[in-house]
Specification:
500 residues; 5-stranded antiparallel sheet; 4-stranded antiparallel sheet; 50% helix; membrane; Spore germination protein; transmembrane helix; UPF0353/GerABKA_families; Spore_Ger
Length: 500
């Protein structure tokens, strides 16, 4: 009875709240279209103690701006010094000479001030002068994507700096940057980058439309943005390639793909993407093609190891011990003689322990984290074997799986593979090798059903396109890489004119 009464009151409150919000939005929409005045703008920014207000009473000029968003030196040199000790006519001449834009509505001046401009109120008119220049983090190496041979600079949280890093690498007027906003409250800037004449126009339109349709209060990071525009948001696997490296962004743009940058985020995402991109690294292209090919094959093997080693241990010990050689079977029997748990519980216990150590090492300061990972793994593993909680063979399988997961260069895909591993271990515990085969088949079917910007996720394997295999599992020589990926649907397919 009480619950029904509470539910009825809650619904009534929500209805009243929605009506109030709609009324407020209509009022704000009407107010923001009015001509801006100094009094109205100051009322808009009431209780904002970081808002600076400077007045020149003899000239009837008021300046307002947010000090954390502007370059104080520019404000002083370009605006205040130009107005100070000037006459009204000189100020008029300065405004005309600098071609300072005029705001025609309260919304215009509000958005400009919040974007790092100084609002100038002079003779019943409102102007804005952009002097954006907040403190930003310096360009440094990426913590998540290590490059051994190649450029080491990485994106930062300032979108202007990130755009400059891309522009330095792609000096072309065909590089377009479309500016959008996301977040009803934060109004965060988003840039969609593409090379006109290479990127498919329909894909560009699709990407812009998806971002424009986002209706949330705030978007905190580019990875969050990717989840909001995913075609299958409930999938474990990332459908957009994320990177912190400007060199990777350059290669994606030149190949005909789009790149999305978000202000306040050091991550860029590219689309469309395929599963096989996530086993590729920038180092592959900076070394001899045979070395690059060997590394890619090694990463493919690493995926197999991290998915199957622990699951195979559980399957063999539980159901298929007859497949083991007699000597190894005796060793396993002796190792598990004191273990009180069935293989499935034993494996899950050790896998969870490894994940706890990994997470602890990632969250702690660098030096302490490395110590926890190494010492904790050795001490806990040895203690678990001596206490009879697990076998030596399982420790080897779990450690091999954990090490193999680190081989994948993309952090998001590495996390996805780690989660899928638990799924296969559980199936192996109930159905043995048949369960593993069934699980792998389900994963393959799921991957084949995924799309990235309406393109197949497993291309060029499914659908099969042999020309793209020269840059999939192998990293072919540059003279053989003549075509852009079919996934981009570009009309400009020719990459270069190099001949063998």
């Amino acid at each position: 009875m009480y619950y029904k009464k509470w539910e009825k009151q809650t619904k009534l409150k929500n209805v009243n709240r929605e009506a109030s919000i709609q009324e407020t939005e209509q009022q704000n929409s009407t107010d923001e279209n009015e001509e801006p005045t100094f009094e109205e703008v100051m009322k808009l920014f009431n209780d904002c103690d970081d808002l600076e207000h400077k007045t020149f009473s003899e000239l009837g000029i008021d300046l307002i701006y947010f000090s954390p968003l502007v370059d104080d030196k520019k404000v002083e040199d370009e605006i205040i010094n130009s107005i100070y000790s000037s006459t009204t006519e000189e100020v008029k001449s300065w405004v005309k000479k600098k071609d300072i834009p005029e705001a025609t509505s309260i919304k215009d001046i509000k958005d400009e001030i919040l974007s790092g401009s100084v609002g100038i109120f002079f003779e019943n008119k409102t102007y804005y002068y952009n002097v954006y220049g907040p403190e930003t983090r310096g360009i440094d190496k990426s913590e998540t994507e290590t490059v051994i041979v190649g450029a080491h600079d990485a994106f930062v949280e300032d979108i202007t700096t990130n755009l400059s890093l891309v522009r330095r690498r792609v000096k072309s007027s065909n590089l377009k940057a479309v500016k959008l906003k996301v977040g009803e409250v934060t109004k965060t800037y988003v840039y969609v980058l593409y090379i006109d004449g290479i990127a498919d126009s329909d894909m560009v339109s699709e990407m812009k439309e998806r971002i424009s349709k986002i209706e949330v209060d705030s978007v905190y990071d580019t990875n969050m943005l990717a989840q909001l525009i995913d075609e299958v948001p409930d999938s474990l696997f990332p459908q957009y390639y994320s990177t912190e490296l400007p060199d990777v962004v350059r290669s994606k743009l030149v190949s005909g793909k789009m790149v999305v940058l978000l202000d306040t985020s050091p991550i860029a995402i590219s689309a469309p993407s395929s599963f096989f991109e996530f086993i590729q690294s920038p180092d592959d292209y900076n070394q001899r093609w045979l070395l690059g090919t060997g590394l890619r094959i090694l990463r493919a093997v690493a995926i197999f190891i991290t998915l199957s080693f622990t699951a195979m241990y559980v399957a063999v010990i539980t159901f298929h011990y007859e497949v083991l050689p007699e000597d190894l079977l005796i060793t396993l029997a002796e190792s598990r003689a004191r273990v009180p748990f069935p293989p499935l519980i034993e494996a899950l216990l050790m896998e969870v322990t490894i994940e706890l150590l990994r997470e602890a090492g990632a969250r702690l300061p660098t030096k302490i984290g490395q110590t926890i990972g190494i010492v904790g793994g050795i001490v806990i593993g040895q203690a678990a074997v001596e206490a009879g909680l697990t076998s030596n063979i399982l420790i080897i399988a779990v450690a091999s799986s954990a090490i193999a997961s680190f081989v994948l260069p993309n952090y998001n895909m590495s996390n996805s593979i780690r989660i899928v591993r638990f799924f296969l271990i559980i199936l192996a515990g109930f159905s043995g090798i048949f369960g593993i085969v069934f699980g792998v088949a389900l994963i393959a079917i799921h991957l084949a059903s995924l799309t990235s910007l309406k393109t197949p996720y497993l291309i060029p394997m499914s659908p099969f396109y042999w020309k793209d295999w020269v840059d999939t599992f192998i990293r072919g020589p540059y003279w053989a890489m003549k075509h852009r990926p079919i996934q981009t649907k570009t009309d400009n397919t020719e990459v270069n004119k190099m001949k063998q």
